[in-house]
Amino acid sequence: MIFAVSQPALAQDDSGVSGASSEKQGDTIIVTGSRIARKDFDSNSPAVTVDQGLLENTGTAALEVSLNRLPQFSPAKTPTAGGDIQPTATNTPGSATISLRGLGANRNLVLIDSRRSTPSNASGVVDISTIPSAAIERIEIISGGASATYGADAIAGVTNFILKKDVQGLEMDGRVGLTQEGDGLEYQFSGIMGADLPDGRGNISLSMSVNTREASYQRNRSWYQDLWADPNIAGTQFFIENPGIFFGYDNLPTAISSMFPNSSLPSYGGYTAYANTDGSAFVNGSWTNGGVYTPYFEGYTGSVDGTEYKVSNAGTLSQNNTSTYLIFPSTRYNIFARGNYEINDWIGVFAQGLFSQVSTHTRQEPGPITSGWSVAIDPTTLDADQLSADMWELLNSRPDPDAPFEMRAMMPEDREGFTDVMTYNMLAGFEGSIPGTDWTWDASVNHGVSVTSSRQTGIYSLERLRTVLNSGNFGEGFSATGNSKDNGFGASTATCTSGLNFFIVPEGGFSEDCLDAIRADLKNRSTMRQTIAELNLQGKLFDLPAGELRGAFGASYREQEYEFINDTLTSQGTSFQDQALGIYPSADSEGYYNVKEVYGELLVPLLADKPFAKALSLELGGRISDYSTTGTSYTYKVLGEWEVNDWMRFRGGYNRAERSPNIGELYLSSQETFGYNYAGDPCSLANPLSWSANPSNANGNAVRAVCEQLMDRSGDSNAKTTYYSGTQSNSTFGYAWPTLVGNADLTTEKADTWTAGVVLRSPFDTPALSRLKLSIDWYDIYTKDAIAPLSIAAALQQCLDPTYNPLVLTNASAAADTVFCQNIERNQTGAQGTVYLTYTNSGRFRVQGIDTQLDWAMDVGPGTLSANVLVNYLIKYKSAALPTLPMVDYVGTLGTEENALNFGAYEYRVLTSLNYSVGKVQLGLQWQHLPAVEDSAEATIATTTVGASAYDIFHFNGSYAVADNFTIRFGVENLFNRAPPLTNYNPANSSAATTGLLSGGTYSGSLYDTSGRRFYLGANVKF
């Protein structure tokens, strides 16, 4: 191993310098990316091998954190997703996934010993936290497509976790890490033991590990404290916690103008009057008055500490959530056992079993009483002392003072998610050779189950809350039995001693019986079952003049069955009497598919030992897959290598891949989400998009006519009048609550991948150059018919843009009845409502770049100095959501999530590792560089918003061999305590008081290190 344990030990598979970068079979090996055994380590696709150095010399056992440092990966789900509390059929809170080339976690195939691992949910992705880290020998990464070899999902390539085999003795390992701020304590203990069977005819091994990670918090980092205090950045909490009363446009209080004489309040849409802790009222908000930004903030008497509460430069009050996780806590247990036994010289048996349990805790701010979770209070049920004088004055000055009022508040407890993922996988089979030949074969059955059990707390029954609050005096002294028959048969009795008066909270908070009366802890469960039966054969077919023609052939059957059972209270469309406050509804989902496959590969030598052609060969492969859902798919590859001499080798070729839709994409039931809308409201007369209702657009009036048809469907005949009598937003950004469903009519997405590269080994014998190696690989991945959910903006465009809905120009009523417009709802004020989305084959994307790797080592003084440099240069990162839209190139920006891609389209990425070893001591330094990037919007329109500045981070590591069998290691990550760069901020927004536009900004915990300096210490002992 050229880089030992103190650096990533990254090596191109062509060189074989990092131990064993492939699976041995006698004198031959099998390289990831092919099933043919051969006598060298050469891979004909871009490949990187990671050994234990990268995994051991870090303060965390999170595999995704280590892999995301490599330029080939873009972050998918990481430990920074601490606010993810909602499990669905396609989302597992606390899971860990990876994304090769940024193409999405479900386009990267995760293997364990070249076999498929068990997915964690209906999206088909593998939670790599379930992989037993103690048993990992190395990780092989093929990033040039590999569907012909391994089947669907390998659009971007393969990440193959190779586990230890033929273990002898006992090895124990421990590690503990802690941040400089004293949080995020993480420790791991693991052990692996094994022994040969009598007569050396087999081996058995067992590995176990336990990992516990405590939470780290944003509040303990100076950069988050500065962010929270910055008046040019809005608070991180969506709603302020002060209770309030929302006054609708149809019943506005006349006392508001005298109570807040310095504020101009909107009549259209209404406003909220909040309560200070002393009972006095204040207003806080903004609106556009005749095209002029108009903030209103008056009467507030509370604290403005710059941490939890602050007044922004836009003139409004905002709040930060100071309990937000930086890294969420987790606990993992892994057990892995394997064994093999040689029955005779030509047949043997093997088996292995894996068990994993991962428990995570995520958290969000309390649920808000607002909008669809609002509560209308009858003021005639309240005594005078239940509200302050200010609130009564406002209520009584309404045209209808006895009308119910909508209360605004935050529930008293954080929303929390507790997720347990239990995974087991059993594999058993036979393997052997054919007498008289070098042919080998294996036949196996692989069955895996992943069960996710989740519980959410801090969730409340909306109807029970409404019942208690409207029982008189906000529920003070409330008592009720659920069943009025037979003395409350089978029902419970709820009481509420203190009441739930959010305006005047009693000292010590609400009584526990009140909270018990409305609590609705949710429970849901999902199960993924996967069964695979496969047969593989490989060996020599016959001799050709240039060498052996070798082949590999096989067949497999795979089936997946998934079920997601949601809590009835939050199952969309299940309960017409109640729902959960604080979490979005999601329906039960289930699905099944199977696929039968056959494949074949050939390794064809063309020339050998010729001038300028030490070796010239082709690697051919094809796979036929028959899916029960999408029919027959064909994938194939044509790769080649030209070894000019001992120090120069060319490689490359073509891969055709097809990815069949997964269970979630096909069968997902209704799932409501919260999302960003990058089109704003296209029905707005001020929307600048070319296909909006803006009268300056050629088709603006026609679009407005369709919008009015949609508003008429809301059930309120005055909806369009209400909407267009007010002032509409000119923004192309907003929030929405779309509902996503699967699409059983999906077809496969298809990808064409081209690669070309050169591998150079130093031809010089000098000490400084003899161990120099360089590889350069170009790749181009073009995917059409990409499977992804339509974005909100694309769904709106398909309805209102005449390019996609020509009826917009000729018949507004008919246009509104098209399937595209049937998916768009407007509410009773005419404003945008629910948008129904589904998965389509509408997208396409293209990613092109160059991978470069430099390896070098030489003796310096009494030791050895080595270096490894990985560089990815991105040439294209293009995407389009709809067939007629031009592809947008995001290179040099933060990227896009369109077509289920991942953020992080850096123009280049560099990872450099230096190592010096002398005797028993090894020291290493790792440097990761990310260049400055533009905001994603820069790809389509000039913007002054900044993506992020350049970023450099260093990690130090070392080890000392106390004895031959005992080594200690240590390190400091983020050596210089580098703060993450601020992302998505606009320095041009310097007049927020008149525009309402803050400079903004946030930190990306997935793209950058937001934890700061971290120390770790580990030890390894072998017996």
3D structure, described in words:
- There is one protein chain.
- Among the domains are: 238-319 and 368-410, no CATH class; 460-519, no CATH class; 672-729 and 791-832, no CATH class.
- The radius of gyration is 31 Å and the shape is globular.
- Helices cover 9% and strands 45% of the residues.
- Residues 1-24 have low confidence and may be disordered.
- It has a 22-stranded antiparallel beta barrel.
- It is mostly beta strands.
- It contains 15 helices and 56 strands.
Task: List the main descriptive attributes of the protein structure presented here.
1023 residues, mainly beta, 22-stranded antiparallel beta barrel, seven-stranded antiparallel sheet, 15 helices
- Rg over CA atoms, rounded to whole Å, is 31 Å
Mean pLDDT: 91
| N/C terminus separation | 21 Å
Shape field: globular
Helix content: under 10%
Q: Can you summarize the main beta sheet? A: 22 strands, antiparallel, barrel
Please give a quick description of this structure.
The chain is mainly β and 1023 residues long.
SSE blueprint and pairings:
Blueprint: E1 10-11, E2 23-25, E3 28-30, E4 37-38, E5 47-51, H1 52-56, H2 63-67, E6 73-75, E7 98-100, E8 108-112, E9 115-116, E10 136-142, H3 147-150, E11 157-163, E12 169-179, E13 186-196, E14 202-213, E15 216-217, H4 222-229, E16 244-247, H5 256-259, E17 271-275, E18 281-289, E19 292-298, E20 309-311, E21 317-319, E22 325-327, E23 330-344, E24 347-364, E25 368-369, E26 375-377, H6 389-396, E27 405-410, E28 415-433, E29 440-457, E30 460-461, H7 462-469, E31 478-481, E32 493-496, H8 512-518, E33 522-544, E34 547-565, E35 580-581, E36 589-610, E37 613-627, E38 631-643, E39 648-659, H9 663-667, E40 671-672, E41 675-677, H10 700-712, H11 719-725, E42 734-736, E43 739-741, E44 749-761, E45 773-789, H12 792-800, H13 812-816, H14 819-822, E46 824-826, E47 832-860, E48 863-880, E49 888-889, E50 908-918, E51 921-930, E52 933-934, E53 946-948, E54 951-963, E55 966-973, H15 992-995, E56 1014-1022
